Every structure is written in C-alpha cells, then in structure tokens.
Amino acid sequence: MRLFLAIDLPAEIKQNLELQLQPLKKEYPYLTWVEPENFHISLLFLGEVEDKDEIVRRIEENVFDVRPVYLFSLSSSIFIQNKITLYVKFKRDKSLEKLVEKLRQEFNMPESVKFVPHLTVARYKVPSKQQYLLLKKKMENFSPDLEFGADTFTLFESIPSGKRLIYKNLHEFKLER
What we know:
This protein is of the alpha+beta class. The protein has helices at about 10-25, 50-60, 95-105, 130-140; strands at about 1-10, 30-35, 40-50, 70-80, 85-90, 120-125, 145-150, 150-160, 165-175. It has a single domain (about 1-175), classed as Cyclic phosphodiesterase (Cyclic Phosphodiesterase, Chain: A), CATH 3.90.1140. The longest helix is centred in the first third of the chain and has 17 residues, at about 10-25.
C-alpha cells in the first residue's frame, strides 16, 4: 500500500477553500482539481509499505515532543515536474518543521528537498508556455485566506480510483501540548 503522512484540514477549512477556488475552477475546468475531502498538507511520502502497523509503532515510540501547529496561508503558485501542480503555500511553522525533521530521521529520508508547507489544489499536463505563464499569473493573484490549528497528523493510504486518488485515513497521531 502507498502511504504518506500529512496534516488533514478541518472540514470547515476544506469548505472555505473550495468556495474560494470556484472562480478558478470555472475558468480552468480542464485541470484535474483535488477533491475537497482530499485537501491536506503533506509531511512525508513513505511510498510502498507492507506493514502499516510497524509504521504506526515507530511513530508512536520515536516521534514525540512536538507541539501543535497553527497554519496561515501565504500565497499560491505553480511548480513544474513532469506535470504542473497548483498549490497554496503556508507560512513556516517551527513545530511543523520539527515534526517533519523527526519523521525524516525516523524513516532515514534525507532532506533532499527543503520542506515547504503547501496544499496541492490541482494538477495538469504541462501546457504551452503561453498557457503556463497565464496560469502562473492567475495563481499568483489567487490568495486564499486560510488559518487553522492542528493538534494531530495522519497516516494516509493513497488508493488510485480511475483518474482520481482516494486518501484513506489509517491512523491519527496526537501532537503534544
């Protein structure tokens, strides 16, 4: 099973973001938009894992002393790899960075890429340069107003379902107060 760790968003924040995205969704219906129930802030991708219980045990035994986090959205943008990803960027949070560092250490995953708290809202194949620049400008002008506290993080399973993914909550971990 393909597993990852993430901060799940409160239901009202998911609804709020979905409302704020409506004008963009109407303008760009051909993008693959993330379903609101799948909105999350990724912490660590674990990949294919046989034993979920071993992951849970290791986190519960070794990842502790991390305070709850409070997250504020900053901006929106696009990055390109083999396709484009539209995302909302969040302000850095020391507790969140500490959590990611502890998780990377526990699972021997070096910091190949600096952690940037973000939430993916849509994906698409790489468009023409003109389309890309227009979409990039639109995203840079889109500034959702989101803020919320999180005192848990979640182990999710990523399940392919046609062109979409379903994220199944397997286990929640409490952050200490």
